[in-house]
């Protein structure tokens, strides 16, 4: 093909993609660019103003960035094995990935949400949901480690999750794919009326954050997509979008778009919680794993639980309603005052704004438009407060700046639109590169947003960075939103597919961030707290190595008497008591990852030697000038040999 033809084709594709036709180079030159550069520039050694926790999507993890710099600070393993530190590989952490389907080493994480007190971010924990094998995780914002994962039985595709109520009383989970409940073998084309859409309510213990699956609301079999809690005046309610109210089971791209309107479910969870407290609901079958990591023993355990309280929404009169929403809604957001609920129809150009007050009046006046499976449908006209008509295409998600404005992403026209609460007037629109999904303003879904920056989380990257073959990281963009117009400041790549993010002022968690684990508080079963206690114990073909690390050696560093066919457990305790001095441990031929052991911590990996010989192990983290010397040997003898089990450090052999 002639070069000119190629060029034209490329240009055409580019314009199509950008939609609103803006040139991606605009704003990258001249005086404006240099003042923008100042706004994101952090001198070496300076800290960012905000933490941003970006969902890792199909990486299964959660990644921590700094704003405004876009510096990547950490990847926190949640639903996926992570060889970087041994999460999901070490003996202690494997249980975190147990489910009722067995060990699942991967997840699809979606929506992180930070715990709140009185509707404000409190920096205690961050929660995130897993879509594929429905689960919700809680991560400590002191250690930045995953502490708990709870599975959701009777669900499939947990998407409307993990949003927290304003005092972190509950987080919710929903089923994106309607399924038989209880699961059973039945013809797919008989789904209509037979499949269900259970919504899960997980209560949170305020002291430790422990999650408890309190009840499931057994809703009709629509696809529940996203959710947000009411706040302030609407506290006590939860709102969920649903699509495929057609209950189509095939070619959903066509068949699930037949109805002009789908539904938002409005759920008075306080009423249902009260009902449960008084003995309401029915215990139904449901097996689910509840995994907890104990910081003191540094070990995760799985409790396989049976049965869950199920509530038929028709049983609790006045607790559950549907509100019609045009054109296959996706995102659903509640403004900081709790007065307005915004529903975004993916196939619409308009946003539907509902008033909480009008919802209450409609309920009072029984302003219903029939019902769906016995759930009253509030009449659209009676609950609609206004419409945001920006002309943008494919609205997905809205966040708020706390100054009276909403910001909505439009996937198809690839832009973010700023509009005013109350007048519903469009104030500004800026292109995103390209095809923005979610967006995030720190605290943007709380009573108190920090409306300085907005991050758009874009689905398509294309030409924004140096090409890296067919697979590219996703692309985030940072905007200054302090003025009337949004100003694009920075592009930075993000790992996996960040479906959502949660931002918080650094001041709220920086000081509490743990520096190391106290050796004294280490209650790990195989911990050794000084070199004198390091040892080996043989129990049949299992050998336990109680080892320590300190700059720059292992104790013991020579081991003999291991035999082919043994199962060797290396329990490594890092004796350091200082910030940022991990030691790693890797053993040749181990069928697992390394482990990275933080100061004061103990971790275990298994090695099953396959061949006779003298085999090295070493520290994987460059911990000191003599890091390369931080190594040891294991002598492996034949299965039937009588080589004595002994170990040494500095040639002092013990047995
Ligand atoms: S949500 S954009 Cu809209 Cu899970 Cu991904
Ligand atoms: Cu310890 Cu390198």
Automatic annotation (TrEMBL):
GO terms for cellular component: cell envelope. It is found in: Cell envelope. Its EC number is 1.7.2.4. InterPro entries: Copper_CuA, Cupredoxin, N2O_reductase_N, Nitrous_oxide_Rdtase_Sec-dep, Nos_propeller, NosZ/Cyto_c_oxidase_sub2, WD40/YVTN_repeat-like_dom_sf. Keywords: Copper, Metal-binding, Oxidoreductase. It holds the Pfam family nos_propeller. PROSITE patterns: COX2, PROKAR_LIPOPROTEIN. GO terms for molecular function: copper ion binding; nitrous-oxide reductase activity. NCBIfam families: nitrous_NosZ_Gp. This is Sec-dependent nitrous-oxide reductase. It comes from Psychroflexus aurantiacus.
């Amino acid at each position: 093909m002639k070069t000119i033809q190629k060029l034209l084709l490329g240009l055409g594709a580019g314009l199509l993609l950008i939609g609103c036709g803006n040139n991606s180079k605009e704003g990258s030159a001249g005086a404006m660019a240099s003042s923008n550069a100042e706004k994101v520039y952090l001198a070496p050694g300076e800290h960012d103003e905000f933490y941003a926790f970006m969902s890792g999507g199909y990486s299964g993890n959660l990644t921590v960035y700094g704003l405004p710099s876009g510096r990547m600070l950490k990847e926190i393993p949640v639903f996926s094995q992570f060889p970087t530190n041994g999460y999901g590989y070490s003996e202690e952490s494997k249980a975190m990935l147990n489910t009722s389907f067995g060990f699942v080493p991967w997840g699809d994480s979606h929506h992180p949400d930070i715990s709140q007190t009185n509707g404000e971010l409190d920096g205690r924990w961050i929660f995130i949901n897993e879509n594929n094998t429905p689960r919700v995780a809680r991560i400590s914002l002191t250690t930045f480690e995953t502490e708990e994962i709870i599975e959701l039985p009777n669900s499939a595709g947990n998407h409307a999750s993990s949003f927290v109520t304003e005092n972190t009383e509950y987080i919710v989970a929903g089923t994106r794919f309607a399924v038989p409940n209880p699961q059973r073998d039945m013809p797919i084309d008989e789904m209509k009326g037979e499949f269900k859409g259970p919504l899960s309510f997980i209560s949170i213990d305020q002291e430790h954050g422990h999650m408890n699956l309190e009840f499931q609301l057994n809703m009709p079999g629509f696809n529940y997509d996203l959710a947000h809690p009411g706040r302030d005046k609407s506290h006590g309610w939860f709102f969920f979008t649903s699509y495929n109210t057609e209950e189509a089971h095939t070619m959903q791209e066509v068949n699930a778009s037949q109805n002009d309107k789908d539904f938002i479910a409005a759920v008075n969870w306080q009423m249902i919680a009260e009902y449960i407290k008084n003995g309401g609901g029915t215990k139904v079958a449901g097996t689910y794993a509840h995994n907890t990591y104990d910081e003191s023993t540094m070990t995760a355990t799985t409790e396989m639980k049976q049965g869950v309280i199920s509530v038929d929404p028709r049983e609790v009169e006045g607790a559950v309603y549907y509100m019609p929403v045009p054109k296959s809604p996706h995102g659903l957001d509640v403004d900081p005052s709790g007065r307005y609920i915004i529903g975004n129809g993916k196939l619409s150009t308009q946003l539907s704004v509902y008033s909480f007050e009008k919802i209450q009046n409609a309920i009072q006046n029984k302003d219903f438009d029939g019902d769906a499976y016995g759930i009253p449908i509030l009449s659209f006209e009676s609950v609609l407060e206004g419409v945001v008509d920006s002309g943008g295409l494919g609205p997905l998600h809205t966040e708020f700046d706390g100054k009276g404005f909403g910001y909505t992403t439009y996937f198809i026209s690839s832009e973010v639109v700023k509009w005013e609460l109350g007048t519903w007037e469009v104030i500004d629109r800026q292109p995103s590169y390209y095809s923005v999904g979610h967006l995030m303003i720190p605290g943007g879904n709380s009573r108190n947003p920090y409306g300085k920056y907005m991050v758009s989380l874009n689905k398509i990257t294309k030409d924004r960075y140096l090409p890296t073959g067919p697979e590219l990281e996703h692309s985030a963009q940072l905007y200054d939103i302090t003025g009337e117009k949004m100003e694009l400041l920075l592009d930075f790549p993000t790992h996996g597919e960040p479906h959502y993010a949660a931002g918080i002022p650094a001041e709220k968690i920086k000081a509490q961030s743990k520096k190391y684990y106290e050796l004294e508080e280490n209650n790990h079963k195989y911990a050794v707290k000084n070199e004198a206690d390091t040892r080996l114990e043989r129990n049949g073909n299992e050998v336990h190595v109680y080892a320590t690390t300190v700059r720059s050696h292992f104790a013991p560093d020579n081991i003999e008497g291991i035999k082919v066919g043994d199962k060797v457990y290396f329990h490594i305790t890092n004796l350091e008591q200082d910030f940022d001095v991990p030691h790693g441990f890797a053993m040749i031929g181990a069928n697992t990852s390394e482990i990275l052991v933080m100061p004061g911590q103990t971790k275990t990996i298994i090695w099953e030697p396959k061949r006779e010989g003298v085999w090295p192990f070493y520290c994987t983290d460059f911990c000191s000038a003599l890091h390369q010397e931080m190594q040891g040997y294991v002598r492996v003898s034949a299965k039937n040999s009588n080589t004595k089990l002994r170990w040494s450090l500095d040639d002092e052999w013990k047995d």
